[in-house]
């Protein structure tokens, strides 16, 4: 089966528990990349005073590549371990991967 890219977007206070959870399951996730981002639009809930002034919310994006099955298991793991957590996700096919 082809690999997929799983991207997770979350508030900064959620990132560490999600990262810890991913690191605890090397059988599902061999590695991931995280980066800071800014959430814009009606789906980005602005809560903090600084967010209200800036007009965007600070987010962390975590990306990982793996089998479709493994990435679905990662989503289920997050649902079970961190219920109600505010994480937006998307899955896309990986056409090619490698190292240069």
Task: Give a description of the structure.
- With 100 residues, the chain is an alpha+beta fold.
- The chain has a single domain (3-93), classed as Alpha-Beta Plaits.
- 32% of the residues lie in helices and 33% in strands.
- It is built from 3 helices and 4 strands, in the order E-H-E-H-E-H-E.
- The protein has a 4-stranded antiparallel beta sheet with strand order 2-3-1-4.
- The protein starts with a strand and ends in a 7-residue tail after the last strand.
Descriptors for this entry?
globular; 4-stranded antiparallel beta sheet; 3 helices; 100 residues; alpha+beta
Using the coordinates shown, work out and report the CATH topology: Alpha-Beta Plaits
Count of beta strands: 4
Query: Averaging pLDDT over every residue, what do you get?
Result: 87
Uncertain segments: none
H and E order: EHEHEHE
Number of H- or I-type helical stretches:
3
CATH architecture: 2-Layer Sandwich
What separation lies between the terminal Cα atoms? Answer: 23 Å
Largest sheet, spatial ordering of strands: 2-3-1-4
Number of domains: 1
| CATH class group | Alpha Beta
* Helix-residue proportion: 25-40%
Radius of gyration, in Å, reads 15 Å
* Main pleated sheet: 4 strands, antiparallel
Beta-strand share of residues:
25-35%
Counting helices, strands and paired strands, the structural category is alpha+beta
Morphology: globular
Task: Describe how the helices and strands are arranged.
Layout: E1 3-11, H1 12-23, E2 33-39, H2 49-54, E3 57-67, H3 68-81, E4 88-93
């Amino acid at each position: 089966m082809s690999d997929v890219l799983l991207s997770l977007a979350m508030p900064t206070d959620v990132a560490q528990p999600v990262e810890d959870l991913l690191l605890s399951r090397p059988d599902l996730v061999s590695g991931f990349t995280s980066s800071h981002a800014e959430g814009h639009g009606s789906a980005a809930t602005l809560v903090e005073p600084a967010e209200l002034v800036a007009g965007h919310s600070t987010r962390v994006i975590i990306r990982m590549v793996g089998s479709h099955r493994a990435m679905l298991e990662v989503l289920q793991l997050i649902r079970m371990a961190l219920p109600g957590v505010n994480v937006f996700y998307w899955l896309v096919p990986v056409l090619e991967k490698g190292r240069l």
